[in-house]
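[09:14] KT: can someone run the structure on this one? pasting the chain below
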Amino acid sequence: MKDRLRQLLPYLFVAFVAASRWPGLMPPNFSAVYALVFCAGALFPGPVSWRMPLGFLLASDLALNSYYQWVKGYDVLNATGLLYLACNYLGYAVLWSLGKFFRGTRGLTGLLGGGILGALVFYLVTNTAAWCLNPFRNPEYTRTLTGWLIALTRGTGGYPETWEFFRNTLLSGGLFTALFGAAWRLSAPAESPAEKGESSPAGVPEESEADEAKA
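[09:31] RB: done, structure tokens below
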């Protein structure tokens, strides 16, 4: 039963994240995507660890950008917008690689710390790209240290300040990493005493000892 659930979990995670990406459903930058990509690197087996999140992100980004371009009227499919999207995938690659680094972490606390760190790195990469490329031509994003700090902390006028996005990034990265990690560990098959490194129960000789006794 647990083996079957373990096989289904990556698909359940992706289905949950897909639902969470519906426009307007979550607060800005409060996303389960960071946790999905990090946990895919840290937990998912074999090629599934990169094929599944990459395929999902490509399909969902194509759908979302088409929605914003032709329904909302935002010009997001221009060259600069696509380059900025590519920078997002650079951030995802860093997240996934960080997950691979944390692969084998036994404690949920370590996995949680890695998820929060990954969300922080993703925030720095994508907001630096937004400052550097400035796809919406925000006048505040001057090519200076001050402009970069504004992009990371205050953002542009008429929108919530960037530190609020940063807060949501960290909160969602930690929350969903904890949820995904806990679900993954609860679905793990029970380990035998030999796998745990435990000795045989008291009074029961090991196989080699039993053979010696017979001799």
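[09:33] KT: thanks! The chain has one domain: 2-188.
[09:34] RB: yep, looked fine to me
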